[in-house]
Design goal:
alpha/beta; 6-stranded mixed beta sheet; inorganic pyrophosphatase (n-terminal core); DHH_sf; Diaminopimelate Epimerase, Chain A, domain 1
């Protein structure tokens, strides 16, 4: 297997400047890093006067739109059938594998258009024509490094995007990836005008009723195996519909990841956007327990302490069977 090496920052910059019509595709697994790295890169392209389009295959949560202007991103675009002909460059941000551009994990990019892959996930196979993959708190942290190498004028808006992504993708600066360098980036972004305290209030003191109801479902279905040090819950779409919840922004496994006396936790959920499969979100409570190893064996990805994957209904017809698949894999982690 060829060695995975990053393209030089100046080489990537030259490619971007030469492009006439860039396409930015958001990763299907919505989070602030996927969103904010896209918004920051879009602002950068505006500074260069490079024509570009931003697309996302699903809905952006309403709550997020109250914090950031996402109007430039076209939602619910079928990236499998999208007309790529007008574009001469594709930029992928925060996608650990190119398949993750869709929730079914089977996206294949057009072979005739060069691409840039900017990411921070361990195991990223460098699928782009040009790659910049750096294992750090977030893709936005890696993007901040590129912006500084390119001497980009980082505006207050861009600083807010980058800070939001670094803070959330590091577990509110609690994951082991948060070192002195990352903390210094937060300080540098605050010095550039990023509103750290305002964003933290938004995250921690601005919870939607719908999110509280979904958390209640997750807690009600919680199963704790104290002897084997794991816990899980099941979030069925039928339970969500029964409560008349149309939208929520809770990351299911984050709800129970603080449970004491566990090595790891996971939540199994059904999702109408991926019929025919269970979606599994996994979190480590013990920082030495590697949930990424479990996810990767099922075609998923993420990080050592936060990962996700899918299990098809053909492999596990019931939630109990899906639980067994995860537990069997965990025994070898």
């Amino acid at each position: 297997m060829p060695e995975k090496t990053n393209s030089a920052p100046q080489e990537i910059l030259s490619v971007v400047k030469s492009a006439k019509n860039v396409l930015l595709i958001m990763d299907s697994r919505f989070d602030f890093d996927a969103l904010c790295s896209t918004l920051a890169f879009s602002d950068f392209l505006k500074q260069l006067s490079v024509k570009h389009t931003c697309i996302f295959g699903y809905d952006i949560p309403t709550k997020v739109k109250g914090r950031f202007d996402t109007s430039r991103i076209t939602e619910n675009v079928n990236v499998q059938t999208y007309n790529y002909a007008p574009h001469d460059l594709i930029v992928f941000l925060d996608s650990g594998t190119v398949g993750h551009l869709v929730k079914t994990h089977d996206y294949v990019p057009p072979a005739n258009i060069p691409s840039i892959n900017i990411d921070h996930h361990a195991g990223n196979p460098h699928y782009g024509t040009y790659n910049y993959v750096k294992e750090t708190t977030s893709t936005s942290s890696a993007l901040f490094d590129l912006f500084r190498a390119w001497h980009v004028d980082i505006t207050k808006a861009m600083a807010n995007y980058l800070l939001a992504a670094i803070v959330t993708d590091s577990g509110l600066l609690q994951y082991s990836s948060t070192n002195q360098v990352e903390l210094q980036k937060v300080i540098d972004l605050m010095n550039l005008g990023a509103d750290y305290h305002g964003f933290m209030r938004y995250l921690t003191q601005n919870e939607a009723y719908e999110d509280m109801v979904v958390k209640g479902i997750i807690y009600a279905n919680l199963v704790f195996d104290r002897q084997n040090k794991f816990a899980y819950s099941v979030l069925n779409q039928a339970d969500i519909d029964k409560k008349q919840i149309k939208e929520f922004s809770v990351v299911p496994a984050d709800v129970i990841k603080k449970l004491a006396d566990t090595d790891f936790v996971f939540v199994i959920r059904t999702d109408p956007e991926t019929p025919g499969s269970w979606y599994i979100s996994l979190r480590s409570h013990n920082p030495e327990f590697d949930v990424l190893h479990i996810a990767q064996q099922l075609g998923g990805g993420g990080h050592k302490v936060a990962a996700g994957c899918s299990i098809s209904f053909t492999q596990a017809q019931t939630a109990d069977e899906a639980v067994k698949v995860i537990i069997d894999l965990a025994k070898h982690t």
